Amino acid sequence: MRVVSGVGPGVCSGWGLGMLVRYLKIIGALFGLFLLMVIIDRAIGVPGGSRFYAVACLSAGVAAGLSCMWALARQALASGRMCARLRVVAQSAESHCLEVLRKVTHYVESRDRNRSGHSRRVGELSERIAREIGLDEKVCTNLCVAGQLHDIGLLAVPEAVMSSSTKCGVDDFRLIKKHSEVSYELLLPLDALSRKTLSAIRYHHERMNGTGYPAGLAGEQVPIEARILAVADSYDAMTHDRPYRKAMEPLQAMSELRRCCPAGYDPQCVDALARALKLAAMEADPADSAATPLGLRA
Ligand SMILES: [Fe+2]
């Protein structure tokens, strides 16, 4: 996108400069012609000849100027169309790239049947929490993407660890802890993801008291986007089965999150989660009491 947006104006301004130089050459030639005519006129002595030559040269200059301006306008229009087309192609390539990454995340999740749909739900829930807090619309939609891709780094965790039916040991946990940094490294070259989105992914396992990973950030050092993602991630993990424990009921998960405030989670994010779940429950189809529009357990 950054490259594409710079193509049109650059091409157009280079072309326009060339046209201006050509126009100045025409004006210079006409002025030279006018002087020559005046000199000849003075030598031969035609009455009123200078005025006639001046009007003729001026008219030719105006005609040349109008012609150049018309050509410039046509070029600008064509350049604008080309930029618009390139922008559409770039946006399509970006969304295709994100779709591929979502599928990779889905593949990673499928190695552990209990994680199925986790990233999609975390994305949707994070977006809702951000909206409840009142963050910019762009930040909200970016958080949805961050949630969908936050665990892509689990790709680097061995199959045996991912599919284990027991709670992981110290060594396995050391491997798992690398996934947020791996997610960040994998997604870093992608222009489509903002710096804040990447930070949310990188720091979604940080805790408010500094006991999280990978950097041990604390309090305000943890970006708000990462604090939101952490709450959504934990809530979804708590309310779904794991091989070594059964899913918690939503109210139980909420009280667990509140118990871990403010040491683990940001209280404003947990409060926003409660409001988001309430709203999701209200939006759910009344005929289907077991489901919310998000597939969340509210
Ligand atoms: Fe994670």
The whole-number mean of residue pLDDT values reads 85
Distance between the termini: 39 Å
CATH class assignment of the largest domain? Mainly Alpha
Q: What's the total helix number?
A: 11
Overview of the molecule:
This protein is an all-alpha fold and 298 residues long. It has 2 domains: 2-92; 110-283, Hypothetical protein af1432 (Orthogonal Bundle), CATH 1.10.3210.10. Helices cover 68% and strands 0% of the residues. Helix 4 packs across helix 8 (195-202). The longest helix has 61 residues, at 49-109. It is elongated. The chain starts with a helix and ends in a 15-residue tail after the last helix. Fe (ii) ion binds next to helix 7.
List descriptors.
298 residues; Hypothetical protein af1432; 2 domains; 68% helix; disordered N terminus; binds fe (ii) ion
